[in-house]
Please model this.
Amino acid sequence: MSPSDRSRDLQWGSFTERGPWDLDPQNIRWLGSTQALRSQAKAEVPVLTTPRRLPPGGRVITVTINIVKALAPWFIKKKRNKYVDRSASQADVSLRLRKAVETLGPTYIKLGQIISSGEGLFPPELVEQFKKCRDQVPAEPFSTVRQTVEQDLGARLEDVFEWFDEKELAAASIAQVHAARLLTGEDVVVKVQRPRVASLVRKDLTVMAWIAPYLVGRIPISALANPPALVELFAETIVEELDFRLEAANMLDVATMLHDLGQEGYIVPRPHPSLVTRRVLVMERISGFNFDDVAGMKDAGIDTEAVIRTGMIAFMEGAMIHGIFHGDLHGGNLFVLQDGRTALLDFGIVARLSQERRLAFLRLMLSATTNDIMGQMTALRDLGALPMDTDLGAVIKDLRLDQATIDPTTLSGEQMVTEVQRVIKALLGYGASLPKELMLYVKNMVFLDGAISRLAPELDILGEVANISMMFAQRHGDRLGKELGVDPDAVAFDMSGVKASLGLEDNVDRMTYKELQARRDLIQKRMRDHVGH
Model:
């Protein structure tokens, strides 16, 4: 393709070479209002999540009844020691919570979908149950879709679209998407918000905020993401999702970030310059391989290791250099094109770091690759994971981070369970928590970890971390020096800390993902066997 055939918006954004339209930020009808809308959404969160003294209306009765009906049998069986082991108890309560979530509707289904992406942050039984929430959301009838589109666009469907598929491509908790073709001939995807979901979400958030304090310590969800913290995180993410103009602006910001980084392995579909409203988002249609279709990608000659490598680099660079990253990576939000590039989809959740937290992310990365334990703890504190007045030296001592790494595969199940309980107790004692940006970052890293198992199981994890660290220093060393006040030429990489985080002793120089997963499986089996006895 000659330069003249390329879309002009490629000069500032990471898009397909030839789009159905050119985007000019000066002529995007909906763009001017997004900054004010984002500020309004942010200001609304504390109002919605501050618990009220009295129950917030009739909805709380419905929610409470469903939760009690779901959990009461589990609680009684637990008190009577009817479960064989802890795993059976977790499986039962997870199943009951998932059924309650489905009964309560879109808001709670969305919460379940977020939890389903948190492998490693939440119990596996809970994650597996809530994964079923991803594809068990009934679609709205087409008559409702037509009404919403026509109301928001201010025109009959036939006056905008040559063709509009009545059968949805997918249906989620907040919206569903349909394939269509504009009268001007462009193939598009139309995202349509469910009617009344915005008011229902806001009502449900006040209910969640009222109920959450009563659930602390009563439901085995997650030690470091207690129910009130989870509600606050959920509110911060979902309130912005209720206005598709903010999602479209996220698409432009991420596309700009990828272009500025010179990251050519990722592209973003173009939102339409005028057909975007609060409840309707018309965007360029892009197709490719499902992210889990490893066989299809390999048959097409796509280097799946390169796909993973590109993802890790783009994700890290976005967070640490530009302070922005896609906050909801999962298989349904990624397409791999025939040429090996990856298309990012669904920008409802995008994390934006303040300058202070972005620098904290930078310090965390630098400290991890130089084995600076105090630097890592300071960065975590500045990210909001620990209170600002925390005695970091005491944390390091209590967590035994200043001691030699013990290979967990050399421990018995009882020893490992005891150690995990000790660490969690110590962290809770210091008031540790998972702020929104850190939780989304960890959740994405967990997704990439699982993607490696499918796309690149023979990838040398230690070698890859070292190579990415060196690449990062070469590309951004000068910026690191200016922003963090360090001499990039004097930085000495030390993989000891990275190895320790994986439970590896310092003399291990190579570890494929397949080998690492085998170690994890062994550790988890020993812990389960101990708990079972």
